[in-house]
Amino acid sequence: MLRRTSLTVRRLALAAVAAVALAGCNTTTEPAADGKADSGSKTDVTVRPIEAARSVTDARGVTVATPEAPQRIVCLVALCDDMLTELGMTPTATNSRLLAHDKFLGPARAAQIPVVPGGFLSPEVEAVLSFKPDLVIGLKDTHGKLAPALKGATVFWPVQPETWQHSVGYLRDLAALTGRTAQGEKAEKAFRQRLATAEADPSERTALVMYGNDENFGVATPGSDVTAGLFPKITRYPWKSRGVEGTYSMEEILAKDVDVLFVETLSFGGPAKAGERLSDKLAKNPLWSRIPAVKNDKVIEVDPEVWAKGRGTRSLGIVLDEATAALR
Predict the structure, then answer these.
(1) Burial degree of 102 (CB within 10 A; 0-12, 13-18, 19+)
(2) Whole-prediction pTM value?
(3) Which contiguous run of DSSP H or E holds residue 42?
């Protein structure tokens, strides 16, 4: 089972847990009782117009105001990089590797973006301010402690996404602040249409998204993980959150007859190498080889920068593309 420390690392380093629903929508997606794809409410592809604004109040009731449309934005969380890419912008500095993905900036262009010293968990305040940002976007649980040091020098926006609706809401808010309203509407429309298309033809296979390092693992669940929240709409996903202390055992996973298994290997300093991936480590468990997905070579190591960290509309669109292809 996943140790509490490992779960905390995912929550902090990957920022996968949190928040409240969008204004006017305070429910979270849960799997159907039998694990089948949710046949309830369908994704609305309608996109409301976005109006430019100097002040917005996000889904968690945080009000963000900038005197001018922010141009120099420092990203302390990958959701920020995702949103800026969708809006046709690049961060002034970042501590994420998300931009190196081919469907973002690619390795060459991403290498030109300055890196915030200190890493995700402890970005250096002096370094952040040295970039003279108009706006700093970070994760509330991890970077909220920086707010006092940044106050008066720049605007700090603590975000905490938990569902794809939160991600869309944050995108809309940033589009309003930056004046990139047309780009925001276009990105939201593309994501909604992609999700609606995927849920119109759900898979009958049972899927699982798991994460971890070494032999410790956790199960990504709707209501606490943005990516996992997509799965009940497109396939059988019989996994529910068990709170901070709870996770699933290998015996329970085996009992669910998982057909397709998506694995996020959490590592620092770059992608895990063959032999060091979570799936490689779990292969030592005698129960692992009995899982249908393992027997049928349907264990897919996915890019954690996109699947676990991105959580914006572009990342989630990539997840949908990769997941639906594997679930066919």
Answers:
(1) exposed
(2) 0.88
(3) none
